[in-house]
Amino acid sequence: MNRKPLFIAADLYGCPNRCLHCWLGRMQSRPMEKGADEWIVSRFRPYFDTITFFSWLREPDFCPDYREQWERDQKLSVNAAPPRFELGSFWRLVRDPEYAAFLKEAGVSCVQLTFFGTEETTDRYVGRKGAFRELLKATEILLDHEISPRWQIFINEENKEEIPLLLKLSEELDLQRRCRAFGGTFRFFVHSGSCEGENRKLYSVRICKDHIPGELIPYFYNYDALRPEKEWCGLWKEDPSHVIPHNTEDIVLYVANNYDLFFNFTHMRPEWRIGNLKRDSMDELVRRITEEDIPALREAGRITLGELVRLYGDSESEKAFEEEDYRIYLLNIHLERLYARQEQGPQ
Ligand code: SF4
User: Fold this and answer.
1) Pocket residues for ligand 1 (CB within 6 Å)?
2) Which residue in 52, 71, 187, 317 could disulfide with 80, CB within 3.0 to 4.6 Å?
3) Per the confidence metrics, is the pTM higher than 0.85?
């Protein structure tokens, strides 16, 4: 029996959005079969003492019976109770008059809402016409229920002029004062996100540190940790260490809607697949999980950071990265190319 707590997040229902920055990667949205949640947990129960189960890994509460499903998640968890995060479904908030009250009952005091600029840009990045207006409406619904909205803003070279307008809009809406009125806090923060999943495709418009509008710097998450790509390349070009993601305190697994299994280290692409819950033996899957023995991690332990920089880094680039984001970005390029070559087979 494994003593490390296990967290399982299964993509039981999918997501109404198709965000251009989605770090998980583009996946088909379709519900898993009835009873999939119970079946998934039953597969792990003989191996782990503590299991926390989440029926979502993309949009929380994106199912009509979200209340019952939340109760099921709690019942299915073993020696643990799934926490609520500062997350919710803005899709549901504007469509379901009961939903905000449910969030409140479930103890949610803040919900994050994600913007990508003004109306046209946000709609395009979320992948749904009307998304921007829904986010504003969701903000009002949350306030009406004394839940603080938190505006998360993704910035890049394409939308950087629009982000100060969002800051101004949040001031015009007087969100800080309105949250304080019920003891809440409005938070506005900006970042460029990691560079994996769909966001990797936005590498060409990744923001340069010098191009971040000055008025946004106080709101930029981890601003001081950002460095231009060329600096990371200079620092690491001879680095003999390896980029190996690792589970420390607990194990977090994602289950895709086809039962493919992934660690939560990065995007859910084939090269990171641990195996498949329907097809592979549980003994073998648990061995791979606990020993962290999958081809991607073996390769990560073989290639050095210096080699990754020399192969894939751009020593002229001003694009801004945080350390961990740049390391995993390099490793992912390598794994993706290696996997593509293996898929093609011998030429
Ligand atoms: S970022 Fe979140 S809301 Fe957007 S597509 Fe991905 S999972 Fe859905």
Assistant:
1) 15, 17-19, 22, 24, 58-59
2) 52
3) yes
